[in-house]
Amino acid sequence: MKKKWLLIIGLILALAIVSLAGCSPGNQEVNFSSQQEGIWVTGQGKVTAIPDIATLQLGISAQRASVGEAQAEAATSMDKAMMALKNGGVAEKDIQTQYFSIQQVTRWDQDKQEEIVIGYRVNNMVMAKIRNIDQTGNIIDAVAEAGGDFTRIDGISFSIDDPSEYRTEARDKAMVDAKAKAEQLANLSGVTLGKPTYISESISYPVYSQPPRVAEGAAAPTTPISPGEMKVSLDIQVVYAILD
């Protein structure tokens, strides 16, 4: 049995040697993927959109001599700020805690040559999504008044709740742009443009941010908030076949 297997292996090796001997450099062929052939272009589509969502980063920061005092002060002020958000039409599902901390506050004692604890600071920050964007300024003012001197508003950003319609329009523009570029390259090269063989999409959807200006005091005018416009961008990479 062992001799039989050795004979079979020998025949296989002999056939392989004969096959390789029959190949010459002129007969060798390298077969590339279709994605490495054709005309490669990137089409760009941009659509201007008006934001319909405002997201506030806000919260309370309270400092007192003890943890208990700081925590109680922060909790009371935060309850008032949350009530102001809800009274302004912000749904509870659109309010999410982002950060909570209790930290020691220290200072350097020159006489003792060491850090000494002088109090404790409680930070409680939330993200609030405002769907009635026209009420953003009023809500900021209400929160600032409710939280008093403990109020912290870190920033505001604008976005689009459902960008699918804008992406569809941007996609149309990107494909038109890609085809125009490919046709120009084909004409310059003296070839005939074929159908797309590969398509890849990438979406750029920036969120516009700006620091809000907070009105001071109840008698002050409403904080002016302008959402402006934003761009919904989409890039499509297309590979077109070359017919001749």
In terms of topology, how is this protein built?
Blueprint: H1 2-21, E1 39-49, E2 53-64, H2 67-87, E3 95-109, E4 114-130, H3 136-147, E5 151-159, H4 164-189, E6 193-204, E7 208-210, E8 230-242
Antiparallel strand pairs: 1-8, 2-4, 2-5, 3-4, 5-7, 6-8
Helix pairs in contact: 2-3
What does this structure look like?
This protein is of the alpha+beta class and 244 residues long. The chain has helices at residues 2-21, 67-87, 136-147, 164-189, and strands spanning 39-49, 53-64, 95-109, 114-130, 151-159, 193-204, 208-210, 230-242. The chain folds into two domains: 32-50 and 162-244, Protein of unknown function (DUF541), domain 1 (Translation Initiation Factor IF3), CATH 3.30.110.170; 53-159, 2-Layer Sandwich (Alpha-Beta Plaits).
Which fold name is given in CATH as the topology of the largest domain?
Answer: Alpha-Beta Plaits
Order of helices and strands: HEEHEEHEHEEE
β-strand percent reads 35-45%
CATH homologous superfamily (4th level) name of the largest domain: Protein of unknown function (DUF541), domain 2
The count of DSSP E runs of length 2 or more, i.e. the number of strands, is 8
Over the alpha carbons, how many angstroms does the gyration radius reach?
Answer: 33 Å
Q: Given the structure, what is the number of helices?
A: 4
Profile the largest sheet. Answer: 5 strands, antiparallel
CATH class of the largest domain: Alpha Beta
- Span between termini: 58 Å
Structural domains: how many: 2
